[in-house]
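From the shared-data thread, chain only:
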Amino acid sequence: MTQMTQTAPQPSTLVPGLLSGIGAGALWGLVFLAPEIAGGFSPLQLTIGRYLCYGVTSALLLAPRWQHVRASLTRHDWLSLVWLAMAGNTLYFIFLSAAVQSAGVATTSLVIGFLPVAVTIVGSRDHGAIPLRRLTPSLLLCVGGAVCIGWQAVVAPASSNPVEQLTGLACAIGALVSWTAFAVGNTRALARTLVSVHEWNLSAGLVTGAQALVLLPASFLLDDWSHPAPQWLTFAAVSAGVAIFASILGNALWNRMSRLLPLTLVGQMILFETLFALLYGFLWEQRLPTAMELIAFALVVASVATCLAAHRAQR
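Structure, as tokens:
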């Protein structure tokens, strides 16, 4: 694996980087609601709808600067975009949608909550990164928060069918692995490319849209496309919403943060996606968080705070 030199974030980059990470988490948290709102559609259909909208929007926004982007992106950049789009967009959303529909938002949030741990461990191998032992308190708090988040799903599973519950858990783990690979690979690709973070995101949108087109024949064979008009309207609104807010705006904020913060701190920022997903889930279910969920919030905040303290000490 290619080694990167990491330096501690400076005050001029730390605050903008943190705000960008929080904003990305707030927008990405909406993705967890999509499979619930459009529950009549399969994970594959939801993925195709979202990323066709993402691809079309990216093409429209990228058109005025296409000549510059095409000249700036190398063959290696395009190959990176293909596998990053597959890992961080197509596969991730298929796994996530299947996990939410089979095991529920809480169990899925539990597994996805381990993303900061996975990314931080991988990032600690980079040259100049903060030693893993100095991040141990942050990682332990992160794990504690993730366990609390999913505790209710463990004692009260969303599905009474054990096979369905285990399938959802396996899909959530698949989403975890897929997005860990994306988070690490995308940060390193951004350090090499000559285009801006916005142009990189839109280029990824083009590639992801092409992948969605490739998936269409399989969906026609495997899925039921006979839905009433109101369901199709909901599907269209959800697809366009997550494409614009999560894929366009959320990815742009995330890419900006990835250039401002080291990979070990980038890993911690992923946790805000889980926090906002839970918040939106409470609003959707019209309920207040439980005591265990409040404890989880406290542990997650403490995890990020201790990680920031470790980076300040290194600086």
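Confidence is low (pLDDT under 50) at residues 1-7.
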